[in-house]
Design goal:
Number of strands: 11
Number of helices: 15
Radius of gyration: 24 Å
Helix content: 40-55%
Order of helices and strands: HHEEEEHEHHEEHEEEHHHHHHHHHE
Distance between the termini: 49 Å
Strand order of the largest sheet: 4-3-2-1-5-11
Largest sheet: 6 strands, antiparallel
Number of domains: 3
Strand content: 15-25%
């Protein structure tokens, strides 16, 4: 009992200094400071990427730490134990599941070649989107200023093949597809406006969308003629809608979040196809042939607990939280499971608050997403130059040479049979 109490006290001290998303940069910094004898010798110095499970809280998350002999160094314990902690003691608090091991040399090479500090291989456990992709489409939406074109219910007109649109949504669709072309992405955005009058957006909107949420729903529709289709449906504006009430930044944010959600599904399918060794078209056919994945009879609870949706909604929720809070503040919100939380987190609490097993799966994914996205936000455009400045002159040759990383542990497998469909909380068809 005494030993357990001491461990708990140490744990509390460490949690006070935790820096979300800083474990990977911390490991890189230690690699830069490694000695010549440690630099390429796994037996003397290793960076470990893997998963840890907190003994006291039960939280499981991706993590990075450094092992030197029998000592462990990481960002969480660096303030309270700057000289490291015995690996045996570290394992008493955190259940260690190593996925990848790197020498200091391999760590630096990975950094330089990828342009970020990790994770590099087990990142597919939680599907993430590159900062450039997210920012690129968001910038395209902003630059289009589509909201200055008409989106009135009187402007809704048949566009093609039973799809309705407005001048504003046509502008947005063109902007998104132009952006996809510029980055050479195999994506096509198909946008339309609902013709159902009950969803016209007005000042007394019963769905709470006024004035900034014009979104109806979104859906990833799989590959077609060499392109992956992302479909977005919008609501037209009523005659009592006042454009002066609109905050364009919030409107852009809503659309960007939905697009990113669908892009997670897009990436999931690509991983599925790759892991099975089949074409993306074949992977999609397998998906839509699975009644368990395309069934909508299991209601909102079933929808939110599907593995593929947990992954996508965790990405979306992390974006929402990091838009409002610091990484540490965001982490505290999910730890407390605050019932007053809004957005995706609030929807999960309201829908699955009585199911601790399922909501824990969401918290785990969300933690990982906060960690990864917060790190991406901290990276600068001058990353490569900064790394080169820190790299000793005699080691710059390693930018063109160097060994591959060593894979250990059971690693990460891709989820099976996802259902790629989503709707924002509160939207119809969800």
């Amino acid at each position: 009992m005494k030993l357990l109490l001491e461990q708990w006290r140490e744990y509390l001290k460490e949690q006070e200094t935790i820096a979300v998303g800083q474990c990977y940069p911390f490991a890189v910094e230690m690699s830069n400071k490694s000695s010549e004898s440690e630099f390429a010798d796994l037996s003397k110095f290793k960076v470990v990427h893997g998963r840890v499970t907190d003994k006291f809280s039960g939280e499981s998350f991706l993590h990075a730490w450094v092992e030197k002999g029998g000592m462990v160094f990481d960002s969480q314990t660096s303030h309270t134990k700057p000289n490291g902690i015995l690996k045996a003691d570290y394992k008493k608090i955190y259940q260690l599941e190593p996925h990848e091991e790197y020498t200091a040399e391999q760590t630096i090479l990975k950094c330089m070649k990828t342009g970020h500090k990790g994770p590099w291989n087990h990142i597919n456990e939680a599907t993430t989107l590159g900062t450039g992709v997210r920012q690129g489409f968001r910038k395209a939406i902003t630059d289009s200023k589509f909201w200055t074109s008409s989106n009135q219910e009187g402007d809704v007109d048949l566009a093609s093949d039973g799809e309705f649109s407005t001048p504003a949504i046509e502008v947005l669709m063109d902007a998104l597809n132009m952006s996809a072309q510029e980055i050479d992405a195999d994506l096509y955005f198909l946008l339309n406006v609902t013709s159902d009058e009950q969803y016209t957006l007005g000042i007394d909107d019963e769905y709470g969308g006024y004035p900034n949420n014009w979104m109806m729903r979104g859906q990833y529709r799989g590959p077609h003629n060499g392109k992956h289709i992302i479909w977005l449906e919008f609501r037209p504006l009523s005659t009592d809608y006042s454009l002066s009430d609109l905050n364009p930044e919030e409107l852009v944010k809503k659309i960007s979040l939905t697009i990113n959600h669908e892009l997670v599904h897009y990436n999931q399918l690509k991983k599925q196809a790759e892991s099975k060794g089949i074409s993306e078209e074949q992977a999609w056919e397998e998906l839509i042939a699975d009644p368990k994945q395309i069934s909508s009879s299991d209601g909102r609870k079933g929808y939110l607990t599907r593995h593929i949706e947990v992954d996508a909604f965790a990405h979306e929720a992390a974006e929402e939280l990091l838009d409002k809070y610091s990484p540490d503040e965001a982490l505290n919100i999910i730890r407390k499971k605050n019932g007053t939380a809004d957005g995706i987190v609030g929807d999960y609490i309201a829908t699955l608050g009585d199911n601790p097993v399922e909501i824990k799966k969401f918290w785990t994914k969300l933690y990982t997403q906060i960690q990864q996205q917060s790190q991406e936000l901290s990276e600068t455009e001058d990353f490569q130059d900064e790394m080169k400045e820190k790299l000793p002159n005699q080691l710059r040759r390693l930018l063109k040479t160097g060994g591959n990383n060593t894979k250990v542990g059971k690693g990460i497998t891709n989820p099976k049979n996802p259902k790629f469909k989503s709707a924002p909380p509160g939207a119809s068809g969800g």
